[in-house]
Amino acid sequence: KIAKEREWRPTFLSHLSCSCVLNWIIQDSWEIIEGLRGGLSNVQEPENQAGYMLKKRKWPMKGWHKRFFYLDKGILKYAKCAADVEKGKLHGCIDVGLSVMAIKKKAKCIDLDAEENIYHLKIKSQELFDEWVSKLRHHRLYRQNEIAMFPHEKTLFHPHYPLTSSPTIPDSQSIRKMLCLQPFTAQCSLSLSLSELSVCEAQLLELNHLLRSMEVLHRTYSAPAINALQKQDSCDGSRPLVHQASNESRASITESLSEFFDAQEVLLSASSSENEPSEDDSYISDISDNVSMENFSNEVENERLNTGCVENGGSQEQRRCCLPSPSPNTSNISLWNILKNNIGKDLSKVAMPVQLNEPLNTLQRLCEELEYSELLDKAAHTQDPFERMVYIATFAVSGYASSYYRAGGKPFNPVLGETYECDRPDKGFCFVAEQVSHHPPISACHAESKNFIFWQDVRWRNKFWGKSMEIVPVGKTHVVLPGFGDHYEWNKVTSCIHNILSGQRWIEHYGEISIKNSNSEKCQCKVTFIKAKYWSSSMNEVEGAVTDHKGKVVHKLFGKWHEGMYYGSPPSATCIWRMNPMPPDYEQYYGFTKFALELNELDPLTKALLPPTDSRLRLDQRLLEEGNVESAEVQKQRIEQLQRERRRVLEDNHMTHQPRFFQKSRDDTWVSNNTYWELRKDPGFSNFDCPVLW
C-alpha cells in the first residue's frame, strides 16, 4: 500500500528486504516524542545545551535561517547569535515541557508545537541532530516533572531564575559558561524558616496571578477569552461598529505570497512559522468613534434582518431561529488517542467520531461564504472601478466571519456525488454545489443572481502539528459582474485551529489574498490577514490596499475579519461591512450564525424538490442535528462503507466517477454545466438516476 502511494517501482522494491523498507518508512515519517508518564518521577537536572540550528523563517518569508539556541531547564531561547542571547535580545522563547515534540529522522527535522506557534527546526549534522534530540527529551521530561510538582507555576517564569532579573533571560555568567561548553550548575543553599517559606509562596502566587492577567505579555497557553469577547463584539444594530485598534502605525502592504510551499519535507512552510519581532511589524492605527456610515448599505441590511422567523421549521419566508437540539458534550472524547499517530499528516483520511462534527457539511460551508452577498449587489451598482474592488475585497473577507465561533467542530466530509442547493429569493441568489472528487477531496459550487455570478472549486491540504491544525485551501474563487464585464478572481488564506487537544480552541486566519480583474488591468487589490503575535493582544486584524495599474494606492482597507471592514483614512474612514448579530444561545448550538442555522433546514415543500443526493437528506448529519449521537455514528459509518463499496466497484470495472452538474474546464478547474436548475424545473428529480449515497 505504501509502495503504491509513493509510486515505487517493482524492480526497486525487489532489491529491498521488508526490514529495510520498514526502516526507511520509519525514518521518513514523523515520530512523536512521548512525555512524562505516571505522574511525578525523579528526573535528574539536565545539562544545558547551546548551538546553532536552522529555523523556518517568519511568515511571509520563505526558507530557513540560522539562529542560536540556548536550552536551560526545559526553556528553549533563541536569537540571532550568542551575543544577543547574552545581552537578552531574544527573538523568542519556547517552553519545551508544554510543547508537543515531533522529529523526522531522515530529514533531521524537529517540530515543536507550542499552541500559539509551530516551530520548525532543522539540523544539518546527524551527530548534532541526535545530540539535540537527546537533550530536548531530557529537558522536556525535567520540565514536565517540574510542572507536575508546581502546577500553579507552569509559565515561562522559571522558579530557578531570581525574581529581580528578567525571567526569560539567563545571566551573562551562565551564557559565558555555555559558550565555553562548560555545564551550567546552580549551587545554592537555603535555610529558611517555615514562616518565611509560606510568605514567599504567597507572594509568588500573587505574582503569578498578576502575570496571568497580563495577556499582552504572552499568549503561550491561554486562548482568547472568546465568551467575553463575544459580548463585547456583537453588534446590537443600534450603533456603528467602532474598530478596536492598537497604538502604533501600520506600514505598507506585504509583498505577494502566491508561492510559499518551498520546503519538501514541510508542506506548509510559510503558514506554519511563528512570528518574530522585526522592524517591519506594524499595527492598525487608532481611529476615533465618529466613523462615517453614509456609504453603508443600510437598506439591504434592514431588508435582511426583517426576514420572518419561526422555531425549527416553516416556509421559505419564515426560517428557523435555532436547531432542534444543542451540540453534544465532547469532553469524554480523547483526541490524543485519535491524532497521536498522525503528526504532520493529512487528516482528511483520518476517521473522527461524529461528536466532533457540526450538523453541516463542506458544501454548505461554501454556501456560507454568500452570507453577505449584498456586498456583491452593491459592487454591481457601483460605477467607480476602484470602489467596486473595495466591495469585492470586503466580500472576500466577510466569508471568514462565521468561523470565529466555530473552532469547536468540523463539518461533515461530503461523499462523492453528494450535492447541495440553496435557493434564496430573499437574498436574490440560487446556489448549487457538488462533491466532484473524493481523493483528493474537491468541492465545486456555483451561484447566480441578477447582479453577479459566483463559482469556485476548493481543494484542501491540512496538517496536524500536535496542538494545532493548519488548513490550506488550494484553488481560486471567481466573481463575475455582468453589468461591467468584470471577472474577479482570488485565492484564500491559511486557517489554523489552536488548542486541538486541550484548553479553549480558537481559530485564526493568516496570509494574503490577491484579487485581480482578469478583464481589466485598471486596478488590483491585496488583503493581508495578519498572524497574531504573542506579545500583542491585538488579533484578527486585516489590512489591504486597492491600487491602480501603476501600483499607486487609491483606497486603503482595514478592520477585523470577525467584526467589520473600513476604507479610507482615520478619523473619517467609512464602515462598509460589519458582522451580523449572533442569534440567542449560539454557544449551545455549535456557534452557528443565523444564516448557518438555516442551511440544513428542511421543510416539506423544499424536500419534494430536492434530488436524493442533497446534503439535507443525509441521515447521519440530520440525526446529529436532532441530538441522536449514537444513531448518527452508526449511520456515518454505514455511509462511509457504502462509499468504499462504490469506489471498489468503479475500480474493478476500470471506471471513474463522472460528476452530474459540473465539468472540467481547460484550466483543470470544475465549473457548472448549467443543467441543475433546468433539470430541477423540468422534469424534476423524482426519477433522477443516481447512486444510493445513504
TrEMBL record:
<dbReference type="InterPro" id="IPR000648">
    <property type="entry name" value="Oxysterol-bd"/>
</dbReference>
<protein>
    <recommendedName>
        <fullName>Oxysterol-binding protein</fullName>
    </recommendedName>
</protein>
<comment type="similarity">
    <text>Belongs to the OSBP family.</text>
</comment>
<dbReference type="GO" id="GO:0097038">
    <property type="term" value="C:perinuclear endoplasmic reticulum"/>
</dbReference>
<dbReference type="GO" id="GO:0005829">
    <property type="term" value="C:cytosol"/>
</dbReference>
<dbReference type="Pfam" id="PF15409">
    <property type="entry name" value="PH_8"/>
</dbReference>
<keyword id="KW-0472">Membrane</keyword>
<dbReference type="GO" id="GO:0006699">
    <property type="term" value="P:bile acid biosynthetic process"/>
</dbReference>
<dbReference type="InterPro" id="IPR018494">
    <property type="entry name" value="Oxysterol-bd_CS"/>
</dbReference>
<dbReference type="InterPro" id="IPR001849">
    <property type="entry name" value="PH_domain"/>
</dbReference>
<dbReference type="GO" id="GO:0120015">
    <property type="term" value="F:sterol transfer activity"/>
</dbReference>
<keyword id="KW-0963">Cytoplasm</keyword>
<dbReference type="InterPro" id="IPR037239">
    <property type="entry name" value="OSBP_sf"/>
</dbReference>
<keyword id="KW-0597">Phosphoprotein</keyword>
<dbReference type="GO" id="GO:0031965">
    <property type="term" value="C:nuclear membrane"/>
</dbReference>
<comment type="subunit">
    <text>Homodimer. Interacts with RRAS. Interacts (phosphorylated form) with VAPA. Interacts with OSBPL6.</text>
</comment>
<dbReference type="InterPro" id="IPR041680">
    <property type="entry name" value="PH_8"/>
</dbReference>
<keyword id="KW-0445">Lipid transport</keyword>
<keyword id="KW-0966">Cell projection</keyword>
<dbReference type="GO" id="GO:0005886">
    <property type="term" value="C:plasma membrane"/>
</dbReference>
<dbReference type="GO" id="GO:0015485">
    <property type="term" value="F:cholesterol binding"/>
</dbReference>
<keyword id="KW-1003">Cell membrane</keyword>
<dbReference type="InterPro" id="IPR011993">
    <property type="entry name" value="PH-like_dom_sf"/>
</dbReference>
<dbReference type="GO" id="GO:0005789">
    <property type="term" value="C:endoplasmic reticulum membrane"/>
</dbReference>
<dbReference type="GO" id="GO:0032433">
    <property type="term" value="C:filopodium tip"/>
</dbReference>
<comment type="function">
    <text>Phosphoinositide-binding protein which associates with both cell and endoplasmic reticulum (ER) membranes. Can bind to the ER membrane protein VAPA and recruit VAPA to plasma membrane sites, thus linking these intracellular compartments. The ORP3-VAPA complex stimulates RRAS signaling which in turn attenuates integrin beta-1 (ITGB1) activation at the cell surface. With VAPA, may regulate ER morphology. Has a role in regulation of the actin cytoskeleton, cell polarity and cell adhesion. Binds to phosphoinositides with preference for PI(3,4)P2 and PI(3,4,5)P3.</text>
</comment>
<keyword id="KW-0256">Endoplasmic reticulum</keyword>
<keyword id="KW-0446">Lipid-binding</keyword>
<keyword id="KW-0813">Transport</keyword>
<feature type="domain" description="PH">
    <location>
        <begin position="46"/>
        <end position="141"/>
    </location>
</feature>
<keyword id="KW-0539">Nucleus</keyword>
<dbReference type="Pfam" id="PF01237">
    <property type="entry name" value="Oxysterol_BP"/>
</dbReference>
